[in-house]
Design brief:
Blueprint (H helix, E strand, L loop, with lengths): L1 E8 L5 E8 L2 H10 L3 E7 L4 H8 L8 H16 L4 H11 L4 H14 L4 H6 L7 H13 L2 H47 L4 H7 L5 H15 L1 H19 L2 H12 L4 H22 L4 H11 L3 H6 L3 H6 L4 H8 L4 H13 L2 H57 L1
Antiparallel strand pairs: 1-2, 1-3
């Protein structure tokens, strides 16, 4: 039996929350709907191990953009072929492997059977379907153009996936080099340096200060190695928890924007995401002010979102989009000009899509530059550090050899 907290409203709009015990949540929902209640939300109170892990690491309950794009593409194809929405979801579920997306789609299908709209059913799974997805589907349902709206979402997600792949491809090699460098240096400090201690004692020569520092560092790290590893793990976990708080996320995003080269890359990616997402919603028929609120909430870099948070209010007071961006002051000039042209021509959605493609090209150029710079710098770092250790270990030996002569 599961204990489920359900929030529901009756036909007079009165909202209630009740804990139910049931072995069949679907039957319970159906019974409430048949009595005329409208279900607002539901939460399983007795969570299993996997649900508790998701509570600590919420990203485990989500899906990748690629999965979401593939599902949307197939659903659009099936609808275009003339299948009803319910049957199209069944076709998708027949051959799909188990996972968070499949579980969500199964519940969406059950909700549709109970008379709930497609968009409201999607909205019950915020970890799987982002708000832009739900809002855009709402617009498609209202306009009767769900198939066309799904096509725009496919293009949106495919564009986002392409940009992320560029970033990942550019950062993988430097990351591997850095990891190899750290492993090599750690091995040198923990395993190689201690082997020279007995040799230095037998030479009976005064050790240079640099050599003493290296030996002291090796002794400390070798003695407290696992405590240091545990401390690093605890620090990483604490940083993860801090990043989940609004203030922590904003602080980390601001620091990311100040990094050399990487900060520019982060900013361009944020503006690319902003332009592409807003373009998708505008082409889907959603109003600009409503779209901006959703787009700003969905931006991954919250520092950039904070720069633009005044936009909906300024537009609500009658300011033009381009003038509002110019007043904010921290927005790139190219964005202001493109938005101005889009407003003047009445083709803002198309111009924003072109702007996103412009930023994508700049991201590609910048990632190539970053890769070409980071590689020699990492090799230089590794050579200097390892060379310093070698010099520190050879200096006493050379001193002893000179004394013998």
């Amino acid at each position: 039996m599961d204990r489920i907290l359900i929030k529901f409203a009756d036909d007079r709009g009165r909202i209630r929350e009740t804990v139910f015990e049931t072995a069949a949540p679907g039957d319970l929902r159906q019974a409430l709907v048949e009595r005329g209640y409208y279900i607002l939300s539901e939460e399983i109170l007795d969570k299993g191990l996997w649900e508790r892990v998701q509570g600590v690491l919420p990203f485990l309950g989500g899906v990748s953009l690629t999965e979401l794009a593939d599902f949307t593409k197939l659903l659009r194809t099936l609808l275009k072929a003339g299948l009803p929405l319910r049957d199209a979801l069944d076709v998708f579920l027949e051959e799909a492997a188990k996972g968070p997306l499949i579980q969500a789609i199964e519940q969406v299908r059950d909700d549709i059977d109970e008379g709930i709209s497609f968009s409201k059913a999607l909205a019950r799974h915020p970890l799987v379907f982002p708000e832009i997805y739900v809002r855009t589907v709402v617009a498609g349902e209202k306009a009767g153009t769900l198939e066309a709206i799904l096509g725009r979402l496919v293009l949106h997600f495919q564009g986002m996936v392409a940009v992320r792949r560029k970033l990942v491809a550019a950062l993988i090699y430097p990351s591997v080099l850095l990891l190899v460098s750290l492993v090599a240096i750690t091995f040198m400090v923990v395993k190689v340096v201690p082997e020279f201690v007995d040799l230095f004692r037998s030479l009976d020569v005064p050790l240079p200060v640099f050599t003493q520092m290296v030996l002291g560092l090796s002794s400390v790290i070798g003695t407290w190695f696992w405590f240091i590893v545990a401390g690093l793990v605890a620090g990483a976990y604490s940083l993860l928890q801090f990043s989940r708080t609004p203030g922590g996320r904003s602080l980390i995003d601001r620091l990311k924007l100040r990094l050399p080269l990487l900060g520019s890359l982060e900013e361009k990616f944020a503006y690319s995401q902003f332009s592409r997402t807003l373009s998708t919603m505008l082409k889907g028929g959603l109003p600009l002010v409503e779209s901006l609120a959703v787009v700003l909430d969905s931006l991954e870099n919250k520092a950039v979102a904070a720069r633009l948070e005044a936009l909906p209010g300024m537009l609500g007071r009658g300011e033009s989009f381009a003038k509002s961006l110019k007043i904010i002051g921290e927005v790139p000039t190219v964005m202001v000009r493109v938005v101005h042209v889009g407003e003047e021509s009445g083709n803002l959605g198309e111009m924003l899509e072109n702007l996103a493609e412009h930023y994508d090209e700049e991201i590609g150029t910048l990632t190539s530059t970053l890769t070409s710079l980071v590689e020699p710098l990492l090799f230089l770092f590794m050579a200097v550090v390892l060379g310093a250790f070698i010099v520190a270990l050879l200096m006493p030996v050379l001193t002893a050899a000179t004394n013998i002569r």
